């Protein structure tokens, strides 16, 4: 079969399954708003939980950084790309989160690939929560280690997997706050079981950092654990982009030898590192933003309950509405758009089959009126698409 033929077939199959993914060209239009083809929408689909992506302090730091250091690092960190802004950000992150070391990556996806890829060897086992992010599961399945998944957020399930004998080392992998469900992992139980088995725990806190815990230090801090490996990402609550691994000194030294993403990839732009240091300050001092987010979540959940919507137990900014059917999820997203609310339908394979959903996200920048508009739109859209039953 030719490449062209295979590509055409794969696209056609996606189309038939109602699973063709398409990007929409958007223009940001003030906090919490986007424009699409001239229309203005309230944005309930992004991950900018604290609304920092257009924060004046962070934009200014980026501009100052670019003026001082230029727009690119010019090389990998192992060549000439490790600059003062990178070192300062690594130090600030390590101090903030209570680890000896932090290593910067260009993206959370890259960080997960790099860390799991460099650590996991033949004979090791990786035990991952079944709903872990694609970047974690992919890294694990590409590694020479054996990948087993445990039932979502169920320490007993992990316990059973740990009971079977392992040849090599054990790495347990979970998210702090799950990206598509918004629920939090039982981190202390997972960490305890992992430690009893002599393994290491990796927590990817992409959706917890900045939002959960004191000063926004994340899910682990909130639940009182310090996993051996902590991944934080900066494209969500930090409003920017990039990621970091928090770990001990020898693990950092090891990764600097063996993590190819650190060795063969251009370092993060120094101006971005400066922006991230400003974002870290905004996050640390962001109690008012977190309080507003909590208020918005409460207002949404209360309103949704009154409308009889089937909410999940999530208490975070991610408030999914599980629809089940792919086509129906798409129709709902479209009906919400007609009502001025931008919400995305998430379908398999991003989520398990039969659990297509609207992934509604709330931010600190939404107003009470925004939330009420969303609730009203949901009520109407459900009436239109599902026939009045939520
Ligand atoms: C978004 C996300 C990532 C990827 O992070 P990027 O910096 O966007 O590449 C990794 N893990 C989880 C859980 C995520 O939600």
From TrEMBL:
Pyridoxal 5'-phosphate binds at residues 108-109, 179, 207, 233. Keywords: Biotin biosynthesis, Pyridoxal phosphate, Transferase. Residues 43-378 form the Aminotransferase class I/classII large domain. GO terms for molecular function: 8-amino-7-oxononanoate synthase activity; pyridoxal phosphate binding. Its cofactor is pyridoxal 5'-phosphate. GO terms for biological process: biotin biosynthetic process. The modification N6-(pyridoxal phosphate)lysine is found at residue 236. It catalyses: 6-carboxyhexanoyl-[ACP] + L-alanine + H(+) = (8S)-8-amino-7-oxononanoate + holo-[ACP] + CO2. Pathway: Cofactor biosynthesis; biotin biosynthesis. Its EC number is 2.3.1.47. Coiled coil: none annotated. The keyword Ribosomal protein does not apply. Substrate binds at residues 21, 133, 350. The keyword Ion transport does not apply. Homodimer. Belongs to the class-II pyridoxal-phosphate-dependent aminotransferase family. BioF subfamily. Catalyzes the decarboxylative condensation of pimeloyl-[acyl-carrier protein] and L-alanine to produce 8-amino-7-oxononanoate (AON), [acyl-carrier protein], and carbon dioxide. This is 8-amino-7-oxononanoate synthase. It comes from Mixta gaviniae.
